[in-house]
Every structure is written in structure tokens, then in C-alpha cells.
Amino acid sequence: MLVDATLIAAAFVAGTLNAVAGGGSFLTLPALVFAGVPAVSANATGTLALLPGYLSAAWGFRGDTQPPPGLSTRALVVLSLIGGSTGALLLLLTPDATFRRVVPWLLLLATVLFVLAPRLTASRQAGARSPMVAMVSVLAVTIYGGYFNGGLGILLLALFGLLGQTSLLAANGLKNQVSALLTLIAVALYAWGGLIAWREAAIMAGAALLGGYLGARGARRLPPAWLRAGIVATGLTMSLLFFLRSS
């Protein structure tokens, strides 16, 4: 009972975080691992559980979404599907022991990039907005997202800022749409590969759905500094815990 309550709480807060800025997998992955789900399966299951939150958040931001300069909506859809499927296939080929060793580094990387994102965005150059650079960058981040969902929203927000998207609301809406697309194809491959813990996913999905919608609706009222501090603290804490578990 306590384990189920922990999974529900983690999924709800994760859905809210993903809707507003990202970092939801900082909560769902450790919650599933601590519940006894193997690391690779926990990553896949947490990604599936967060999918309803991405969908509801994308719906909540539907009026604010627009792509950054140099990229069309059609290109983003294609890149999201290719990147998500590529990353998912890489995860299917990764042994659980190897993934456990990689996870803390991935969490730490996502946290550091989130901290640096405002500075990177402020120092962007016009040359970084060329269509080819934009497409390659989006493809790289979506492959990452298909392999490891942790920090995906953080990376997408930073990337869209670097590509010239100046509206945070527009970037948030686009981030949720891209996340939903790549996650859809990724979880289909996870399921095909037998990585999903279906009971845990079902427990978490509804909570993530509610959290995603409420997060999208409340994004305009939440102080950004509070949110950023909370995400950074969560990322560092989860990174440390996974380093300790893998040692």
C-alpha cells in the first residue's frame, strides 16, 4: 500500500514538473527502482506512466505552441518519431547492469544542463539557428529522450531557446508536444521488447495525467525561481542516491 502511494505521489508531481519545465523522471525512475522494478524496466515504465501527462499538458498549452525559427511543425514531428524510436531501440539493447551505472551520470548531466540553460539561451548566436543545425540538434535530443526520459523537458526548453524561441509559454507547449510524440513511439517499442511493468504503469498513469493538466494550467502563476530551485535540488539528490546505489 505504501509503495503504491509513493508511486502515485511521484507520478503526480512528475506530471506537474514535466508540464511546466521538465524533470519528472527524477521522481518516477527512483520511485520505481525503490519499488523493486529493474532499472531498464523502471525507465521504460516511468516513460509510459508520464505519457498521459505529456498529452494533457500539450492540450493545456495548445493555444501557446509555435515552433522556433527555421523549423516547421512537420519537421519536428518527423524528427521526434525518428529520434524516439532510435533511442528506444538503444535502450532495448542495454543490459540492466550497464544502465544502472549510466543512470546517475545521465541524471547529473540533465541537472547541469538545466542550471546552464538560461546562460546558454542568453548567449545564443544567429548561426546556431540554421535549419540543418536545428534539425540535427532536435534529433540528438529526441534520441536521448527515447533512451532516457530523465531531464528531457529541460533539454528541450534549453534547445528551443538556443534556436531562437523567446516565448517560454510557446517553448513549453512545443516541449510537451515533442515529448508526447517521441514517447508514443518509444513506449510502443518498449512494450514490444517486454520492458513495461504494466501494473506499476497503470497505477502511475492517472496521477501523471492529472498532474500534467494542472501543471499546464498553473504554469502562468508559479514563480519560476521556486520551480527551478526545486528541480535542481531534486536532480542533484536523485543523482547522489543513484551514485550511492551503483557504488
What does this structure look like?
By secondary structure, the chain is mostly helical. The chain has helices at residues 2-20, 25-34, 39-60, 73-92, 96-122, 131-147, 152-162, 168-192, 198-218, 224-246. The protein has one domain (2-246). The protein contains ten helices and no strands. Helix 7 crosses helix 8 (168-192). The longest helix has 27 residues, at 96-122. It is globular. The two termini are 30 Å apart.
Quick overview:
With 247 residues, this protein is mostly helical. Helices cover 79% and strands 0% of the residues. Helix 6 crosses helix 8.
Helix content, binned percent:
over 70%
The DSSP helix count reads: 10
Report how far apart the termini are.
30 Å
The number of distinct β-strands equals: 0
The biggest beta sheet is recorded as: none
Series of secondary-structure elements, N-terminal to C-terminal: HHHHHHHHHH
Rounded average pLDDT: 81
Which spans have pLDDT < 50 for at least 5 consecutive residues?
none
What would you report as the Rg, rounded to the nearest angstrom?
16 Å
Strand content: under 5%
What shape does the CA trace take?
Answer: globular
Which structural class best describes the helix and strand composition?
A: mainly alpha
Number of self-contained structural domains? 1
Organism: Acidovorax cavernicola
Protein name: Probable membrane transporter protein
InterPro entries: TM_pro_TauE-like, TSUP
Keywords: Cell membrane, Membrane, Transmembrane, Transmembrane helix, Transport
